[in-house]
Amino acid sequence: MSELRFVRMGFGADAVEYQEAWDEQRRVHAARFADEVPDTVLLLEHPPVYTAGRRTADNERPLDGTPVIDVDRGGKITWHGPGQLVGYPIQKLPRPVDVVAHVRRLEEALIRVCAEFGLETSRVEGRSGVWVLGDPVEQRPQAWGSPRPEAGGGLSLDLDPRLTDEEFDPRLNGPEYAPSNAGQRREDRKIAAIGIRVAKGVTMHGFALNVNPDNKWFDRIIPCGIRDAGVASLAAELGRNVTIEEVLPVAERHLRDVLENAELKPRVIEKAPASVSPSGV
């Protein structure tokens, strides 16, 4: 892959409105398709905003009617805002595009970023993004359905209704179920979300890494449509202040290392074997 170009669009007081960043993505996407610019990663912060991918269900949106921007990426609803490093890699990939491989590369770069700050993260099978893994259920502050006061602090649940109710809505059942409190419950929690789109062989959208945001913004939605896990941030997990300014050069270095050194291959399309008619027919 050719050398990546990084564009720092705006942070802090210069955070970039979502629509402005989306327009810039489309402009760069068209230029990359025409080979007028190299592969480019836009890096920025957004003012608070909810965005909904194509698979978002109505019952995952804010209950109070807070505005949501519907976008053309994959995935479901999420939040962007202060304290979150957002990256939009706009890359030309060989066709047919291997979307899963692209997502895995972004995950790998972000896993390395977290590791450099001393936080072990991982993937969760069947769920995109980067995760802080929780404890096994029996080692959490309370096993579902039976008190375990000897396990120490944290929020406790007498009986977790999520085990039997697929439509359980944590927003209607108190802070003990809130996504922002998943760390106290020692459950799996997502620290980086990934949602992308590929058009004409060029990627758009990308990732959002929670550095030091107010994760209570996620409590107003069903983040990424996931009801049995929560959200995390570098600052909360490490127990110290971590800033976008600290993370930015580290993220650029690992994105460059992973994306520039990737051996890009088109997606393998398996052809169904030709049917063989029975003898004599």
Automatic annotation (TrEMBL):
InterPro entries: aa-tRNA-synth_II/BPL/LPL (IPR045864), BPL_LPL_catalytic (IPR004143), Octanoyltransferase (IPR000544), Octanoyltransferase_CS (IPR020605). It comes from the Bacteria. It is found in: Cytoplasm. The keyword Transport does not apply. Its EC number is 2.3.1.181. One of its GO terms (molecular function) is lipoyl(octanoyl) transferase activity. It is an enzyme of class 2 (transferase). Residues 35-263 form the BPL/LPL catalytic domain. Residues 166-185 are annotated as: Disordered. Belongs to the LipB family. In the reaction, the free carboxyl group of octanoic acid is attached via an amide linkage to the epsilon-amino group of a specific lysine residue of lipoyl domains of lipoate-dependent enzymes. This is Octanoyltransferase. The lineage of its organism: Bacteria, Bacillati, Actinomycetota, Actinomycetes, Kitasatosporales. The gene is lipB.
